[in-house]
Amino acid sequence: SSGINAEYRGVLREERAYILNIVKQIKKAGCNVLLIQKSILRDALSDLATHFFDKMKIMVVKDIEREDVDFLCKTLGCRPIASLDHFTSENLVSAEMVEEIQTGASKCVKITGMATPGKTCSIIIRGQTS
Prior knowledge:
This protein has helices at residues 2-28, 47-55, 66-76, and strands spanning 33-37, 59-64, 95-103, 106-114. By secondary structure, the protein is an alpha+beta fold.
């Protein structure tokens, strides 16, 4: 029983080190806002990863629909990054402000002050159902 516990703790320690290393690489590239595509897996972002991003002051916007990724890339002037090898400062973009704003009962993320703004536009329309 104690061997299993020690083995389990070892696996948790390895997972913690692995996730922390990924978060440190993202921070090292100069990233302070991370947009993450919605995954077919239930949780693409673990609670532990969320904890490390919070500690390193990196805002995470998750569950972005796959169909929205192209629009966001055109708007922000960036490319999607699928591998940590490509997570470098040259592949990041800069904005003056990223904020989460309340729009009625829901929230949305507003990105303003793009250094190289894309040629896109977002219109948010709210309506009542009752």
